[in-house]
Amino acid sequence: MLNLTIAMASGSLAVAAEMVNNGVDLFSSVAVLVGLKLSSRKTQAFPYGMYKLENMFRDAGVEMKLSQAETLPGGLESLT
User: Which among 2, 4, 10, 17 is most buried, taking Cβ atoms within 10 Å?
Assistant: First the structure.
């Protein structure tokens, strides 16, 4: 919320971009934590746990970061 207030008051695109970056980081971290929690569950159908869920959630987090880089101006150029 502080970033949003500063971005609106100053009109700084850098602060706004950092706010978006922090939001995506938070969302992807929560997604990975949920994936870790779900992957440790053991059921009769999956006696060793559902470890593949961890990989799926991790890949979703990576995809979110890549899509964020694509949407920001000059995002892909900054990766190379």
Answer: 17
Number of domains in the chain: 1
The vertex-12 CA angle with 6 and 16, nearest 5°, equals 70
User: Is residue 62 situated within a structural domain?
Assistant: yes
For 2, list phi and psi in degrees, rounded to 5: -65, -40
Distance, CA of 65 to CA of 2 (rounded, Å): 22
Kindly tell me the burial class for residue 35, based on how many C-beta atoms sit within 10 Å of its own C-beta (0-12, 13-18, 19 or more).
buried
Statement: residue 70 has pLDDT above 70:
no
Residue 14: inside a domain: yes
pTM attached to this predicted model: 0.60
